[in-house]
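[step 3/7] inverse_fold.run input=structure_tokens len=294
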């Protein structure tokens, strides 16, 4: 069994030096592979890495990838604009002498905008490279987790689809038994009406026979039941096939519905009509589960 679902979740944690992080990948249904990312500023180079590695293991689904990155302790880096400070001191001295006022304190001068810049000390480039390598390795673990989650969900979906296919096949066999009796029942019903008319007037017996044959041909559903058997066989093969089969199964559901509709329209027996309606219900259940298959 290799069926994979499009629903899954993966989460990994990591740490390097004074950095810690959490990767999360959430996967839901999608017509194609759609990747949306929420990662901290400065890590834009990860975009292509994320998409490339996701495509290696996942073909379909809408995926949300998030990275929470924290730095446990930041060293402060203080930069003083010496030229600006010297100029301010010179101007302050001149103003103090000119107006016979006390000299401004140094802390007042340092508080003036652009004189002092306080920033977090940047890590060494080599440390950042090693951190990014750890981040990438941790992300690959998150992909493995979400893939395993999708596979586990796929196993449950496989069983549900198999059960529904078994029900479709059971209904089909029951419908074939009823359909086998349909021509004779149709003939008897037609003859009853003809006999009632014959009591009042004369009819051509050969013409009556031709009409019975035409009606029986129109009511023949063997072609539809044969196709339904073929679709069941194809569906079972697809469920065991490797790779993404969701689109193929979805197309097969349309073919299932087409034959079930024709069977209902050809039915001249209420029991066969009910079987056809039950088939449509089971096919809808099958299609609902198929929407979650990769």
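[step 3/7] decode complete -> sequence:
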């Amino acid at each position: 069994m290799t069926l994979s679902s499009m629903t899954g979740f993966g989460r990994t944690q990591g740490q390097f030096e004074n950095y810690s992080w959490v990767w999360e990948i959430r996967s839901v249904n999608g017509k194609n592979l759609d990747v949306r990312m929420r990662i901290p500023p400065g890590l834009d180079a990860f975009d292509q890495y994320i998409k490339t590695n996701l495509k290696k293991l996942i073909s379909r689904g809408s995926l949300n990838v998030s990275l929470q990155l924290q730095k446990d302790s930041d060293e402060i880096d203080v930069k003083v604009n010496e030229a600006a400070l010297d100029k301010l001191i010179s101007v302050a001295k001149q103003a103090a002498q000119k107006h016979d006022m006390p000299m401004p304190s140094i802390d007042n001068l340092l508080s003036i905008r652009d004189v002092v810049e306080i920033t977090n000390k940047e890590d060494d480039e080599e440390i950042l490279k090693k951190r990014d390598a750890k981040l990438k390795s941790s992300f690959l673990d998150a992909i493995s987790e979400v893939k395993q989650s999708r596979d586990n969900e796929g196993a449950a979906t496989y069983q549900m689809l198999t059960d529904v296919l078994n029900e479709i096949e059971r209904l089909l066999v029951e419908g074939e038994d009823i359909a086998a009796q349909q021509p004779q029942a149709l003939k008897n019903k037609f003859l009853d009406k003809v006999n009632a008319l014959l009591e009042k007037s004369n009819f051509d017996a050969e013409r009556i026979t031709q009409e019975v044959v035409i009606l029986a041909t129109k009511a023949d559903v063997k072609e539809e039941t044969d196709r339904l058997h073929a679709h069941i066989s194809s569906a079972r093969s697809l469920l065991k096939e490797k790779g993404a089969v969701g689109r193929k199964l979805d197309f097969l559901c349309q073919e299932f519905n087409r034959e079930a509709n024709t069977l209902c329209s050809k039915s001249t027996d209420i029991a066969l009509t009910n079987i056809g309606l039950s088939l449509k219900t089971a096919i809808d259940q099958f299609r609902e589960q198929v929407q979650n298959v990769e």
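[step 4/7] annotate
The two ends are 14 Å apart (CA to CA).
Residues 125-180 form the longest helix (56 residues).
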